[in-house]
Write a structure and sequence with these properties.
seven-stranded mixed sheet; 8 helices; 7 strands; 14% strand; globular; tRNA_methyltr_TrmB_bact; methyltransferase; tRNA (guanine(46)-N7)-methyltransferase activity; tRNA_(Gua-N-7)_MeTrfase_Trmb
């Protein structure tokens, strides 16, 4: 998945190939509660997409002398896990990317109900958010939980975890510190074993990342089990977590 430069013009008479998306835009129903959250909380917590890098310290209401590490979540769905983790880690900042409006509204409801101040949302394609709004080396972590596995072989090219995209993600993770601080991490999770195997192969092949486990990692305590995950586990299905660090 190699994103193109959206600001560059193609040579005269030549069109850019259509970018392959890892998602399709679904027409989901926005509930009354989600619509209210979008109206009332959206202006406070949804960051408009912009073609210039965010000032992360200015984006979150903290003492400017004491900034906090920032974690990006790509594709947060209905936001249950995102809100849980943000509440669990008030000392960290979170930016969630999601293109589907009902999910954005649902996460805004969580923000209001939990009184979260360390979470912001960008309703836009995460690849363009990386390219335009964030700077290399600026992220303490990236979460990608249960991305669409695109089961059919002809659709595998749509899977998010591909060599080029992982290389890009790794470049946005902060490198290890001079005093031995670990580099930023990439945490992926899937309930589809063939995709887990592809993830493990792709992540292991990226030289700027190292696996924190022998192969698959135990589920980190901060990632809650989803209701679909619990149902799958009861039915004997597996769930695979992968946690890699920048080197």
């Amino acid at each position: 998945m190699s994103p193109s430069n959206p600001t560059a013009a193609p040579p005269e008479g030549v069109a850019f190939p259509k970018a392959i998306k890892s998602y399709v835009t679904r027409a989901g129903r926005t509930t009354t509660g989600q619509a209210k959250a979008l109206l009332e909380l959206g202006p406070l917590y949804v960051l408009p997409f912009q073609a210039t890098p965010l000032d992360l310290d200015a984006t979150f209401p903290r003492d400017p002398q004491h900034g906090a590490p920032t974690i990006l979540e790509i594709g947060f769905g209905m936001g249950d896990a995102t809100a849980h983790i943000a509440a669990l880690m008030p000392d960290k900042n979170f930016i969630g990317c999601e293109v589907h409006e009902p999910g954005v509204g649902a996460l805004l409801k969580h923000i209001g109900e939990r009184g979260l101040t360390n979470l912001r949302i960008v309703q836009h394609d995460a690849v363009e958010v990386l390219n335009q709004m964030l700077q290399p080396g600026s992220l303490a972590g990236v979460h990608i939980f249960f991305p669409d596995p695109w089961h059919k072989k002809r659709h595998h090219k749509r899977r998010l975890i591909q060599t080029d995209f992982v290389r890009k993600l790794a470049s946005y993770l902060r490198p290890p510190g001079a005093q031995g601080e670990p580099g930023g991490y990439l945490h992926c999770a899937t309930d589809w074993q063939p995709y887990a195997e592809q993830m493990l192969a792709v992540l292991s092949a990226e030289p700027s990342l190292r696996n924190t486990a022998t192969d698959y990692a135990p589920r980190p305590a901060y990632r809650p089990e989803t209701k679909f995950e619990r149902r799958g586990l009861r039915l004997g299905h597996g769930v695979w977590d992968l946690v890699f660090e920048r080197v």
